[in-house]
Structure formats: structure tokens, C-alpha cells
Amino acid sequence: MNEHARWQTERRLEAAAGALEENGFAVWVCRDRREAAERIVAEADGARTVGFGGSVSLVELGLPDRMASLGKECLIHGAPGLSLDERVEIMRRQLTCDLFLCGANAVTLDGRIVNVDATGNRVGALAFGPRKVRVVAGANKVVGSVDEALARVRAWAAPPNARRLGFRTPCAETGRCVDCRSPDRICRIVQVLERRPRLTDLGVILVAEPLGL
Q1: How far apart are CA 98 and CA 85, in angstroms?
Q2: Running along the chain, 213 residues long, what does each successive block of 10 average in pLDDT?
């Protein structure tokens, strides 16, 4: 990233961070992936169980392996070889874990967190349940408005995620959203956190580099 692009990225993150704080969220702005990973490790101090909300961003930061190396019990419902019943049980345990980590589909410049889910385990945990929730968002996730956030999900997040997860949706074949009625549709639940949920310790780590899809 050249110096002028970094300047713009940092200004946008500062604006989003200020708005998130006004809306009651704790916020950390990190210059790069290494700093973000260290911030999250610090947030895990004292946590025994760490839930992961199926985030590509967290994998790119190396956090599942890092948490396991620290002796944390990692609740990862997407781990290979699990049956459906085992996956669902892990999702339920994520709702009461010590620390829940996930990405965001988008964060708006006016301080809202936008996510679109298929099952609802991520957005459920974001709203209430875990002792602590931390959301990671790369600079590519910062958008101007909720409308832009939803457009971003349909254009840039849902198609590659559907393909990554092996779902048989039109977008996984064509790369374009057609607002499908497929049984495998992953865009089923839209959550907009306009303010921090009043009983949830929810913080956001903004990273001045692209992360995830």
C-alpha cells in the first residue's frame, strides 16, 4: 500500500473508530496483522474457552493455532471431520464461551456493525451470551452506510464464501448474487448492531490492511 492509500485508509479507520466508540463499542485500531493478532491474544488473557465464528480473517491472522498453542479450548464448528450434530453442539457452546472471536461483513463509517448469516450462531453470539466478544475487521470491510454494507455482502462476500463452504448456490457458480431461493442460500439473517448490546462486552479491532472476504 503506498503512502497516500495508507493515509486514506487510516483516516477512514479513525472515523469508523470514533463512531463505534460513540455507539458504545470498545475499539482498537491496529496498523497491521501482527499488531491485530497480538491485541487479540491480549484480549484472550484469562479465557479458557475461545469460540470462533467461522471467520477467514481470523484464519489469516493465525489465531486458531495461536490460541491452541496457548492452551485454550478452541470451539471451531468448521473443523474437518465433524458430524452435523457435533457442529451444532460446538455452535451452542460458543454462545457461552469465555471469548468469542469473529469477523464482520462490514463496519460503517457511522459506527454500525453489519453481518449476514446462514445459521445465526455468529450473530447470536455477537448479541448476547459469551463473556467477551471481539470482532475483527480489515480496512476492506469499512463502508459508508448500511446500504453499502449489504451491497458489499452480496457482491463480494457471499459468492466466494458460498463457494468456499461448498454450497450449491447460483452465486457459487457465477460469482454474482441473484437473490436466490436455493436451499443452500447463505444470506438468511441480517444483523445490524447500531449500538453495543447493553449486556455484552463487545469490542472491535480495526486493521489497516485488507482481511478476509
Answers
A1: 22
A2: 94 98 98 98 98 97 98 97 98 98 98 98 98 98 98 97 96 97 97 98 98 97
pTM for the full predicted model: 0.97
CA dihedral 158, 49, 205, 111 (to 10 degrees): 70
Dihedral-angle region of residue 120 (phi above 0 means left; psi in -120 to 50 means alpha; beta otherwise): left
